[in-house]
Amino acid sequence: EVLEFLTISHLADNRASDISGGQKKLLELGRTMMVDAKMVFLDEVGAGVNRTLLNTIGDAIVRLNQERGYTFCVIEHDMDFIARICGPVICMAEGKVLAEGTIDEVKNNERVIEAYLGTGLKNKVKGAAHG
């Protein structure tokens, strides 16, 4: 049932050591299902995973949330992935919250832009808009 839910039933006879990194991440989600976890922390789930498999992982996360009531706390730098799976987004830098809100609110927040893109870029963009 878990393998089918995660769309990896075709891997049932494979050893975990023989599957791809992205498939292992799906397998890790399956392990949370086997203990009926309600809160799942994921760190850099998209790191090194191809886009197609990342979409499958995203689908599983959304389904686990909507159909089984799981809550996820996801640390991730891929904002397209975050936009797809997360409601509220919290952006942190150096252990402090910079912004909280929708993905668009966070992406357009001056403090976030400055922290991740630097003041120089922000000033350059403003200068280009005025000149």
Could you name the CATH homologous superfamily of the largest domain?
A: P-loop containing nucleotide triphosphate hydrolases
Look at the structure and give the CATH class of the largest domain: Alpha Beta
Count the E strands: 4
Mean pLDDT: 88
Question: Into which percent range does the helicity of residues fall?
Answer: 40-55%
By secondary-structure content and strand pairing, the structural class works out as: alpha+beta
CATH architecture of the largest domain: 3-Layer(aba) Sandwich
- State the helix count: 7
Radius of gyration: 18 Å
- Which stretches are poorly predicted, pLDDT < 50 over at least 5 residues? none
- Beta content: 15-25%
Run of helices and strands: HHEHEHEEHHH
The major sheet is characterized as: 2 strands, parallel
- Could you tell me the CATH topology label of the largest domain: Rossmann fold
End-to-end separation? 61 Å
